[in-house]
Amino acid sequence: MKYPKPTRRSWAEPFKIKVVEPLKTTTRQHRMAAIEEAGYNTFLLRSEDVYIDLLTDSGTNAMSDYQWAGMMLGDEAYAGSKNFYYLESNMQKYYGYKYLVPTHQGRGAEHIISQILIRPGDYVPGNMYFTTTREHQERAGGMFVDVIIDEAHDPESLHPFKGNVDLQKLEDLIKKVGAKKIPYISVAATVNMAGGQPVSMENLKAVRKLTAKHGIRVILDATRAVENAYFVKMREKGYEKKSVAAILKEMCSYTDGATMSGKKDLLVNIGGFLAINDRDVFDEARNMVVVFEGLHTYGGLAGRDMEAMARGMEEMTKEDYIRSRIGQVEYLGQKLLDWDVPIVKPIGGHAVFLDAKKILEHIPQEKYPAQTLAAEIYLDSGVRTMERGIVSAGRDPKTGENRRPKLELVRVTIPRRVYTQAHMDVTAESILEVYENRKKVKGLKMVYEPKHLRFFQARFKRI
Ligand code: F0G
User: Fold this and answer.
1) What is the spatial distance between Cα 38 and Cα 60, in angstroms, rounded to a whole number?
2) CATH 3.90.1150.10 residue ranges in the chain?
3) What is the pLDDT of residues 404-427, one digit of tens each?
4) Distance between alpha carbon 391 and the CA centroid of its chain, in Å?
5) Nearest-5° angle of CA 127, CA 108, CA 271?
6) Which of 132, 273, 292, 387 has most ligand 1 atoms within 8 Å of its beta carbon, as the pocket-test mutant?
7) Using CA positions, which residue lies closest to atom 10 of ligand 1?
């Protein structure tokens, strides 16, 4: 066989591998037993039984030698660790917010900001929900309202900024419930549940303008904001020549604070923070963090973890890094597109999202097509992915009814700096194999349903 000549020059990972961790391959029989024991939920598999782990990009990153070296400089003081001050100054440098409250991970920050700003009966608009973010908003007595543009719910729409806030929906909500009942809008930069889709700078500016008029705060979910900044550079007029670092800082400048899961953009395995400009909110957050996370200069983290995060900020904004990061996701996605496997378009920043509704169109949503598809891919090759559909959406807290999201997806999530292009090839081939045999696949029934964030621990049986 001859390879066709390339039509463009390739990028390559801007690093070489210094330490390796062997992977284990298993037989189909072994995997059958494992997925059955896991109740057909990939979250309940033992990672030992997984070959290529594409469950999540959260905390699964490979740290650099520079970050590992920093781990040895952990200042493990209970109070006032020098790693905290370094993290604080890098946060100010790269994100531009005034105050930092470290937390053990993203949801720690979501908990704190929700409890401080939301009063029972409030409404919290957002550009699509994220599981933990909405859970904390609801626990604080708030009601989440989706104000993302309609295109986000359509896997086929090629809108370049499917994460955008629909200003009309936001304005309608303000008119309906009044600005006093809206403590803030939560804007996610690259929207996870929509398929890793970015928000445009223009949209952020417009959200800022509209909310400022009504005295409503904007809180950014900055978890994957660097990936968003890269898309702005690639797709938005006027930003082609700007650095990703400058774009990130501009994005943050239209917001009042951010919740952050460091386990994504920051290239670490654990950590997060709340960043805020308002001194009073900061004082309250600093007071709350000591109750729930740890002292305000460590927030549940070791000094070494804060050092690794601070150094991660320096690496995440490097142009060659972010290009290869998004490039690898695109490589996998393009392969599937070339083979006509239905995925969410355009290809997202941190993952390729398979359109399970379309792939398993003979399985109704009540029989969990995405949950089923994730189990089938695992069975085929030991590649682990996750459900992002009706199971993840959970139940409406008021009516107790299942929420029925338009998107019924399987997320094939790429950890940062961990896998090679060959792993992407093996993954794509496994997905193709399952796709070609899709007609034989039957759905699942749920046999155990936890009360909160059910997707993590729910159990299923084959029909
Ligand atoms: N916001 C977004 C957009 C996220 O994707 C996550 C986590 C969080 C907040 C919460 O952060 O996990 O550090 O507490 N997402 C992971 C995922 C779990 O797999 O997408 P956390």
Assistant:
1) 21
2) 28-57+319-462
3) 999 999 999 999 999 999 999 999
4) 17
5) 100
6) 132
7) 106
**pLDDT interval class at 10 (50, 70, 90):** confident
Please give the C-alpha separations between residue 120 and each of 1, 258, 331, in angstroms, as whole numbers.
Answer: 66, 22, 45
Which residues are identified as catalytic? 78, 130-131, 221, 264, 388, 455
Are 423 and 2 within 8 A, CB to CB? Answer: no
CATH topology of domain 28-57+319-462: Aspartate Aminotransferase, domain 1 (3.90.1150)
Best CA proximity match to 244, nearest among 258, 265, 259: 265
Cα of 131 vs centre of ligand 1, distance in Å, is 8
Strands 272-276 and 99-103, bridge-based pairing: antiparallel
- What spacing in Å lies between the alpha carbon of 108 and ligand 1's midpoint? 11
Pocket lining: 162 vs ligand 1, CB cutoff 6 Å:
no
Find the 118 Cα to ligand 1 centroid distance in Å.
20
Domain with CATH 3.40.640.10 in the chain: 65-316
Give the residue, by CA position, lying nearest to ligand 1 atom 11. 106
Amino acid 122: pLDDT: 98
Helix (H) or strand (E) holding 143: strand 143-146
- Quote the radius of gyration of the chain (alpha carbons, Å): 21
How distant is the alpha carbon of residue 463 from its chain centre? 31
118 in Cβ contact with 141 (< 8 Å): yes
From the alpha carbon of 57, which atom of ligand 1 is closest?
Answer: 19
| φ, ψ dihedrals at 158, nearest 5° | -95, 15
pLDDT category, 97, cuts 50, 70, 90?
A: very high
**Regarding the domain delimited by 65-316, which CATH topology (the fold level of the hierarchy) does it fall under?**
Aspartate Aminotransferase; domain 2 (3.40.640)
**What would the two tokens of residue 353 be?**
């999202």
State how far the Cα of 150 lies from the Cα of 152, in Å rounded to an integer. 5
How far is the centre of ligand 1, averaged over its atoms, from the C-alpha of 336 (Å)?
A: 25
Distance (Å) from CA 291 to ligand 1 centroid: 22
Does residue 458 contact residue 446 with C-beta atoms inside 8 Å? yes
- For 215-254, where are the alpha helices, taking DSSP H only? 225-235, 244-253
- Ligand 1 atom nearest the C-alpha of 261 is 13
Asked whether residue 1 carries a pLDDT value surpassing 80, the answer given is: no
Give the residue, by CA position, lying nearest to ligand 1 atom 19.
Answer: 56
pLDDT in tens, 159-175: 999 999 999 999 999 99
Residue 130, ligand 1, Cβ within 6 A: yes
